[in-house]
Design a protein that fits this description.
Rossmann fold, alpha/beta, two-stranded antiparallel sheet, 9 strands, 279 residues, Helicase, Ruva Protein, domain 3, elongated
């Protein structure tokens, strides 16, 4: 493994600070700095950007982001054991790394970020999907971020980029692709991590569109999609009957077949139904 900076290899860092990964925090450390630098490059040109990183752990991706030229990195870390290792990185990159200790679900990072902002993270498995949904459903669009470059379990990554007609297609695909370009840019086997998880992982890159692909009220669309996929085996007229007494008429108005199931409906179709319900 070639060095990307003058800091020690990550295995030495972990040994020096006693950083065994904790399952309770969803931790799986990526120790190959060549891989972390490659993930950082998937986020694009970072030289003029602030980067938000969630769950840096011992700082492998943090070092990749800084070595690849990120203007400034804000790292949010819940595990206090990792802070000394992160402060070592901050000392090696003066003025370019800010570390916030705390729960990413409870911290508002915006006060510490200067646009343009990109998000890049090997997300803790136990909060990854919840964070993604929050970033995809802000009160206003465009969001505070230009792009998201995120590591997920492969199954979650497949759900984000899924197309209609398959079992992976669901609420996450609609929320992501309604407002973003989404693609899988890297795949990683379990043995790339310490400890190895039981599943493969993948990096998804999402670029925020200036406006949603199709007009729809976000709240109405979210309710429609949640109701449809909560009972995905049922026909739409049955799954959505709680949304309106005349749901069959609304479905027909939106150009949808009431006997279709959720996985057959395109994002455009869900948006048309959201508009029909809003009327």
């Amino acid at each position: 493994m070639s060095a990307i900076d003058a800091l020690p290899p990550l295995r030495e860092v972990i040994a020096a600070h006693g950083l065994s990964a904790r399952k309770s925090l969803g931790q799986n450390f990526l120790l190959d700095l060549n891989l972390t630098a490659k993930i950082a490059r998937q986020a694009g040109d970072l030289s003029g950007c602030d980067v938000l990183e969630i769950g840096p752990g011992p700082g492998g991706l943090t070092r990749g982001l800084l070595a690849e030229g990120a203007r400034h990195v804000l790292a949010v870390e819940k595990d206090a054991r990792c802070l000394p290792a992160l402060h070592q990185i901050a000392a090696a990159y003066p003025g370019r790394l800010t570390i916030l200790e705390g729960d990413a679900l409870a911290i508002d990072p915006l006060a510490h970020l200067t646009p343009p902002v990109r998000v890049a993270a090997n997300l803790p498995y136990n909060i990854g999907t919840e964070l993604l949904v929050r970033w995809l459903t802000p009160p206003d669009w465009p969001p505070f971020w230009q792009s998201l470059t995120l590591m997920f379990q492969r199954e979650v990554a497949d759900r984000i980029v899924a197309q209609p007609g398959g079992k992976a297609y669901g609420r996450l695909a609609v929320l992501a692709q309604w407002r973003c370009e989404a693609r899988i840019v890297m795949s990683l086997p379990p043995e790339a991590f310490t400890p190895p998880p039981k599943v493969s992982s993948a990096v998804v890159h999402l670029t925020a569109l200036p406006a949603p692909r199709f007009p729809a009220d976000p709240g109405t669309l979210s309710r429609v999609v949640a109701a449809a996929f909560n009972q995905r085996r049922k026909m739409l007229r049955a799954a959505l009957k709680g949304l309106a007494p005349d749901i069959e008429e609304r479905l027909t108005t939106a150009g949808l077949d009431p006997t279709d199931r959720a996985e057959q409906v395109s994002i455009e179709g869900f948006c048309a139904l959201a508009r029909a319900l809003a009327r």
